[in-house]
Design brief:
Elements: E1 2-6, H1 16-30, E2 34-40, E3 58-63, E4 66-71, H2 81-99, E5 107-111, H3 116-128, E6 132-136, H4 142-147, H5 154-169, E7 172-175, H6 178-186, E8 194-196, H7 213-218, E9 225-230, H8 240-251, E10 257-262, H9 268-277, E11 283-286, H10 291-299, E12 303-307, H11 321-327, E13 332-335, H12 339-347, E14 350-352, H13 358-370, H14 372-385, H15 391-422
Parallel strand pairs: 1-2, 1-5, 2-4, 5-6, 6-7, 7-8, 9-10, 9-12, 10-11, 12-13, 13-14
Antiparallel strand pairs: 3-4
Helix pairs in contact: 1-15, 2-3, 8-13, 11-14
Length: 423
């Protein structure tokens, strides 16, 4: 089977969509299938093309057996509704014709977070007469409303109609959370074609390890209880809460607790400026590092902080970093309500706190720093539970959806051919 996968995020980018797509496609290649990925020049989240790449009209490379086609797109930082939309639309415009140059695929998969990539997937499926799977990673454009990036408008209403059209036209929808599935079914999408394949972790990469002594020394973390946020610094993450927590700890004289924030994003510059304004010596910022280096930074953490803005939409998401820190055996301090919080609580892999509640996060940090036995137990529980979220297993589940979708498509074509002959 030849799988064509459209995504505007792919390694060497290190965000969640890039990691999920690569790890799934790698497993499908290992299972004996051919996979072609169409993506753009790596540039997320800074809007600067990575070293060794150029924003060219068409380029090819091979990565872990995956055939990668990179097309031109309007490159911009992950900020600003208009520029980001131009980025998304430009990828749709160039990925669609590029798909016609790929040796005949059997099926096309297009992934969000935004759905202009899915528009390309739908168009390709019609032009090449192959089934189309929509991988749903984000309820876009609802997420735009949730973070206040754009006010209510006719444009958002039109985008929502387009969103529903794509769900209806897809032969299958693969959602990353049960809440997404329920949302679509509640809006009239056929529930029988919606499948849930959650995010997970590559357990060959993320596993418990001793603290990286070189990093501890370089970052000045010796003797500190280190709590870290690793990921995109965007509007949705409301990381100002972590800075306020650091201020509260400093004012109480708790310089034994240190916050480490690793990553880039639209809010990074403002966060660094705010930390400098508050003179927060108990906060360190580190720019994004290659995927292979991330585990070194996970290793220095005594606790992982996961946080999203307090809004109803984010009760439906499951941040992928949850499974990575569970795989590292690190206790989670989880500031996201809803489905992901229920995983943390049911697996006893960490503690939850109210999103945007700096005082409650402070109390959680103080409690874990005092009770190292509790922290160790939560980390062990997460490590035991994460086996259910092994990316290798999840890639197999999604492959079953792909194979069943293709099988139904072939059956339907054969039935139509038989009906035509009998007529």
């Amino acid at each position: 089977m030849h799988i064509l996968f459209l995504t505007d995020n792919f390694p060497p980018e290190v965000n969640a969509p890039a990691s999920r797509t690569f790890e799934h496609c790698r497993e499908w290649v290992a299972a004996g299938h051919r996979v072609t990925v169409i993506t753009c020049a790596p540039n997320f989240p800074t809007g600067k093309v990575f070293e060794g790449y150029r924003n060219r009209l068409f380029a090819r490379e091979t990565m872990a057996g995956i055939e990668v086609v990179r097309v031109w797109s309007y490159v911009t930082a992950n900020e600003g509704f208009l520029r980001r939309t131009l980025d998304y639309v430009s990828f749709m415009v160039t990925a669609t014709p590029a798909s016609l140059r790929v040796e005949r695929p059997d099926i096309v998969i297009a992934t969000s977070p935004q759905f202009f990539t899915a528009v390309a997937g739908y168009l390709v499926s019609r032009m090449r007469r192959i089934p189309f799977i929509f991988e749903l990673r984000d309820l876009w454009p609802e997420s735009i409303r949730a973070v206040g990036a754009m006010k209510q408008s006719t444009l958002l209403d039109w985008l929502e109609r387009l969103e529903l059209f794509l769900y209806r036209k897809a032969d299958a929808v693969v959602a990353v959370t049960n809440a997404f599935r329920d949302n679509l079914a509640g809006r009239g999408i056929d529930a029988s074609k919606i499948h849930v394949v959650t995010n997970g972790a590559d357990l060959t990469r993320f596993q418990p390890m001793e603290k990286d002594r070189e990093l501890v020394e370089t970052l000045g973390l010796e003797g500190k209880f280190v709590a870290g946020y690793i990921g995109t610094h965007g509007m949705a993450h409301a990381l100002e809460t972590l800075l306020e927590t650091a201020r509260l700890l400093r004012d109480e004289g708790r310089d034994d607790i240190h916050l480490l924030l690793l990553g880039n994003g639209a809010s990074k510059e403002a966060l660094v400026a705010r930390a400098r304004e508050l003179a927060l010596a108990n906060v360190s910022f580190v720019d994004s590092v290659p995927k292979a280096e991330v585990v070194r930074y996970w290793s220095v953490l005594d606790a992982s902080i996961i946080h999203l803005r307090r809004t109803d939409l984010f009760t439906t998401v499951i941040p992928s970093k949850l499974f990575e820190c569970m795989a590292m055996g690190i206790p989670v301090l989880h500031g996201v309500q809803g489905e992901s919080a229920r995983i943390v609580e049911s697996e006893d892999a960490g503690q939850t706190f109210e999103p945007e509640n700096a005082a409650e996060l402070r109390d959680r940090l103080k409690g874990l720093s005092r009770d190292r036995d509790l922290a160790a137990r939560l980390g062990r529980n997460g490590l035991a539970a994460v086996r259910k979220y092994d990316r290798k297993h999840l890639a197999g589940r999604m492959l079953e959806v792909v194979e069943n979708c293709l099988s139904r498509h072939k059956h339907d074509k054969q039935s139509m051919a038989d009906d035509s002959r009998s007529a």
